[in-house]
Amino acid sequence: MQASQPAKSSLFSAAVIVAALGYFVDIYDLILFSIVRVESLKDLGITAPAEVTNQGLFLINMQMGGMLLGGILWGVLGDKKGRLSVLFGSILMYSLANLANGFVQTVEQYAWLRLIAGIGLAGELGAGITLVSESLPKEKRGYGTMIVATVGVSGAMLGYWVGQQLGWRNAYFVGGGLGLALLLLRVSVFESGMFQQVQAQTAVVRGNFLSLFTNPARLGKYLRILLIGVPLWFVVGILVTLAPEFGRALGLQGEVTAGLAVFWCYFGLVFGDFMSGALSQLWHSRNKALKVFLVFCAVLVGVYLFGIKGASTTTFYAVCFVLGMSVGFWALFVTVAAEQFGTNLRATVATTAPNFARGAVVGLVPAFKYLSGELGFLMGAAVLGGITLVLAFWAVSTLPESYGKDLDYVE
């Protein structure tokens, strides 16, 4: 076991740097399929536009299904075995899966490897945010998670550039190689001191996922946290991933590419994550910052669906950029999840919450298919997005404020 980390860590400590770089590679690999979806499926012999859409949604569901499973696996391990074991174990798993992704020859192989990659991708962010939150003084931890998010989401932009320049197979090879290279930094990171203190207390039960469901107050808090993260994955998993289809529905002047839409959305997310984290620190309130960004997101979803019909693709990508800014509260959401629970359940919550929110795409996709069939492509998306945003706003409004909360306690 590594020595525990000093009680007061620098904002640019090894834990923050490795968590940020790990999230960078995580986002690169997580969003890469959305970037190369059309090219990779056509290369595998799927050429009909309807089949590209259907098979693409199937593969997204496999990846997100893996993240649901991985969220529970890595979350429980994070509280039982430690934050570091999950941080680096998850990186190893998704890196190997993505290397293998570069060799697929059939959609079935593609699907199983996206499932395995999804399981691996589920662990990094929650473990990283938990480690950073427990390693930094309470007045600095919002800035620490802001750095993790701002650096991390820019991985999507590298994914787009690599995918465009080197092709989809090499893009997977690069992602896997980056993850394996990151493992070399393992020796410079210390385990959380809070976790080690709880680990020494043999009477404390750690990582009991089912305990989230046996206490009504705890369950209510957990479910509200999950609802906060769903709008981001409605935007990324539906609006941006299906950008070519939305471009046609909007009658845009030119063909939209999913890769470029993802690039601009995540470029916006870089600024959004920085702003939401900074505002939560300046206002001394996580909840106030979240509410502002949810309203911002609602406005931009309306603009995306109804404000740019017949516009140029340049205008469409500009809206994707601002839409990305509006959902730039992802790390703030995970920070709130970590701050709401004790040390013996913190990694479980901080890891399962973002993955269950991401995994909500599994439910959002069939809901969108049904609503778009009943109401039309654009109105179906509007209704679904409206539901997710209203529920998220209610969840934030009823959740206890966690800014400046002392995290050295157990459930």
Automatic annotation (TrEMBL):
Subcellular location: Membrane
Keyword Cell membrane: no
Major facilitator superfamily (MFS) profile domain boundaries: 15-411
Keyword vocabulary terms for this entry: Membrane, Transmembrane, Transmembrane helix
Entries under InterPro entries matching the protein: MFS, MFS_dom, MFS_trans_sf
Keyword Repeat attached: no
Membrane-spanning ranges: 12-36, 56-77, 84-104, 110-131, 143-163, 169-189, 222-244, 256-277, 289-308, 314-338, 375-396
Membrane topology note: Multi-pass membrane protein
Recorded GO MF terms: carboxylic acid transmembrane transporter activity
GO cellular component, one term: plasma membrane
PANTHER family, per database record: CARBOXYLIC ACID TRANSPORTER PROTEIN HOMOLOG
Protein name (record): MFS transporter
Species, as recorded: Hymenobacter glacialis
